[in-house]
Amino acid sequence: MQPKAFNEWVQPLSNKLYSSALRLVVNREDAKDIVQEVVLKLWEKRNELDTIEYPEAWAMKIVMNKSLDWLKKHKPIYMDLNDNVFQVNTSDDISKHLHHQEQLNTIHHLVQQMKPLQKAIFELREIQGRSYTEIAELLEIDINQVKVNLHRIRKKLKEHCEALEDYGIAKN
Amino acid sequence: MESPKIKILLEKYWEGNTNTTEEAQLRVLFENDIPKDTRKYKPLFDYQAAIKADEVEFDLGFLNEEVQKKDGHNVFLSFSINWRNWSLGAAAAILVLLGSVFYQWNSIETPQMADENKVENAYEETVAALAFLSDALNKGNSSIYELGTFDKSKKQIINENLK
């Protein structure tokens, strides 16, 4: 693959990889290091990429494994969501907008508190929309393990949403 | 979508029995008006949609440096495509620069060169002065020649008369 073609191919992919790594490890520098390593591997294999069946999945698998390793070694970092994540609805008043931000941030903190494997499953299923089979292959775990963990994640999030309403944070 | 249908879908979702298409459908449903008793779950689907839309751009600038370190030459990205043109441009610029330096260097007068110039000027002035003197001294030459011719003619007349 020629350098220009490689650049065009790898830019959108590296954006996805970096966004995923950043959501998992939260620390920008470490997420950058993880993705840089993967992009370098892809560059070195640029002439063999045609022989790899799913190079994107291959790259995502490395990012996931490295992010999981990082999560196992480090304490979770809690950060609020970036302001640019929130779409400002012009019809909303400021208090409604802030209330919405608060709701989303509480969910964000809950996701950040999850166990490394659950965090990775949440990322792959709820954000990336991957099938159970894909997730099992990417994380090198049994498909039932994916289902069980996802069920636990959703149960926790459901209870959280109900608690938000009970404590008045979720009222509209 | 009717209220019972969204509830059924939501129940399937909590149990982990929805497929990815149904989950995408659920997210779209939560963007619109939903039954009151399901509104409490809206933040969760809003959160997923917001995170999904927030893609961060990754800077690939490091790759060029890494490749240069490993391979010792620039082979990456659009820069390498115009590398030949860049090389020619750089070579031309260096030539112009060298030419300019060479010209400047030659136009600079060192003290030694200044002395040599003075000696040369003095010599040229001396030569010019001597040439002028020579011209001045040679001014009477034609008269002397004429006198010589007259003397020769005079001797010839005298000799003819004596015969």
Describe this structure as you would to a colleague:
The complex is a heterodimer of chains A (172) and B (163). Chain A is an all-alpha fold. Chain A folds into two domains: 3-73, Orthogonal Bundle (Rna Polymerase Sigma Factor, Chain: A), CATH 1.10.1740; 88-166, Winged helix-like DNA-binding domain superfamily/Winged helix DNA-binding domain (Arc Repressor Mutant, subunit A), CATH 1.10.10.10. Chain A is built from seven helices and no strands. Chain A has helices spanning 3-25, 28-44, 55-73, 94-113, 116-127, 132-139, 143-166. Chain A is globular. The mean pLDDT of chain A is 89. With 163 residues, chain B is an all-alpha fold. Chain B folds into three domains: 3-53, no CATH class; 61-107, no CATH class; 112-162. In chain B, 77% of the residues lie in helices and 0% in strands. Chain B is built from eight helices and no strands. Chain B has helices at residues 3-14, 20-31, 42-53, 61-71, 77-81, 83-107, 111-137, 141-162. The model of chain B has no long low-confidence stretch (mean pLDDT 76). Classes of the chains: A mainly alpha (172), B mainly alpha (163). The A-B interface holds A 3-4, 7, 10-11, 14-19, 22-23, 32, 35-36, 39-40, 43, 81-82, 84-87, 100, 103-104, 106-108, 126-127, 129-131, 147, 150-151, 154-155, 157-158, 160-162, 164-165, 170, 172 and B 13-16, 19-20, 23-24, 39-41, 43-44, 46-48, 50-58, 60, 62-63, 66-67, 75-78, 80-81.
What oligomeric state best describes the polypeptide chains here? heterodimer
Give the averaged pLDDT of chain B, no decimals. Answer: 76
- How much strand content do the residues of chain A show? under 5%
Q: What amount of the residues of chain B lies in strands? A: under 5%
> H/E element string of chain A?
HHHHHHH
User: Helical residue percent of chain B?
Assistant: over 70%
Number of domains of chain A: 2
Q: Largest beta sheet of chain A, briefly?
A: none
Poorly predicted runs of chain A are none
Question: Which word captures the global form of chain B?
Answer: rod-shaped
**Rounded radius of gyration of chain A (Å):** 18 Å
CATH fold assignment of the largest domain in chain A: Arc Repressor Mutant, subunit A
Strand tally of chain A? 0
Note the run of SSEs of chain B as H and E: HHHHHHHH
Secondary-structure-based class of chain A equals mainly alpha
Number of helices of chain B: 8
Shape of chain A: globular
Q: What Rg of chain B do the Cα atoms give? A: 53 Å
